[in-house]
Amino acid sequence: MSAAVPADAGTRLAAALDRLVPDGNLGLAVSGGPDSLALLLLAAEVRPGRVRAATVDHALRPDSAGEAAMVAGLCAGLGVPHDILTVTVGAGASLQAQARAARYAALGEWAARAGLSAVATAHHADDQAETLLMRLARGSGLGGLAGIRETAEIGGCRVVRPLLTMRKAALAQIVDAAGWTPVLDPANDDPRHERTRVRHLLASVDWLDAERLARSAAALGEANQAVEAAVEQARHDHLVLTADGIMLRELDLVPREVRRRLLLSALALVETVPSGPELDRMMAALESGRAATVGLAKVSPATGGGWRIECAPPRRQLHP
Fold first, then answer.
1. Residue-by-residue DSSP string for 189-256
2. Are residues 35 and 83 in the same domain?
3. Neighbours of 150 (CB within 10 A)
4. Do 185 and 52 lie in a common domain?
5. Is 32 assigned a ligand-binding role in the annotation?
6. Is 208 domain-assigned?
């Protein structure tokens, strides 16, 4: 390992990459911030000749083009191929959400062109802890509390997050030891953003330990995978396509969370994706013996402890 890369950090990243991306070349999303620069240093060390980096320039700040060029120079010094992906961020209620969508769309297209097996991002244990607290505050269920997944498909891009067990401070130390000066995005300290407020909360409350919270999120993620496996089996055992619609049969002994997710997957078959509150209201109605309608679907209790899903009748138009 080079002097800038602690042996423990390199070993941990190598093990994560061997599990997540055992074959092929790896893409790195490198913004120039301390986390992504640490990912660049570590990945170049443990996967020499098998990584390629990209910096997405959202063109939202005057310095963004220069920052992308700075990352290109650092990559050249490591012998890592680098591309700058300039995107146009669409208008919308959330600039951050629009930027995220544009970023992952560009990364997905880049990975496909370059023949990369996946794109790694530098999400770490502190990010995971912040996400868990934000979702707790929103009343999320098990799926939400599982936090940031190690792997995901976003906008056609296969994303891996191999640094989820590492702390932000440790990553910053790696960059500092290399003598690099990272980009500091002022948006990360903007108190208008929920994540910024949660980050300050974590820093100010000593009994909220980011590493322990991240471990809890990982445990919840494993529990969520177990529930998903049960739902997949339930689809095989309880979901039947009929001439009149979809039947979810013999649900009395199926755990409620599995029933809820089974209903959600059945509704997707009729192109209906309810919000969390809409799904909760539908579940409450069905469990009290009443039919409920959401979107294009009507769900009714059926004999034998099941539910019948059919297309809802069109709503009557009121004319003046």
1. G-TTSHHHHHHHHHHH-TT--HHHHHHHHHHHHHHHHHHHHHHHHHHHHHEEEETTEEEE---TTS-H
2. yes
3. 17
4. yes
5. yes
6. yes
Say yes or no: 22 and 108 in one domain: yes
**Is 34 one of the annotated binding-site residues?**
yes
- Residue 35 among known ligand-binding residues: yes
Task: Tell whether 77 is in a known binding site.
Answer: no
Q: Helix, strand, coil: what percent of the chain each, to 5?
A: 50, 15, 35
| Residue 38 belongs to domain spanning | 7-218
How many structural domains are present in the chain? 2
The rounded distance, in Å, linking the Cα atoms of 56 and 87 is: 7
State the Cα–Cα distance between residues 184 and 31, nearest whole angstrom: 10
* Percent share of the chain, pLDDT over 70: 96
Q: Which residue has the tokens 């980011």?
A: 210
- pLDDT surpasses 90 at 314: no
Closest of 259, 239, 263 to residue 249, by C-alpha: 239
Q: How confident is the model at residue 299 (pLDDT cuts 50, 70, 90)?
A: very high
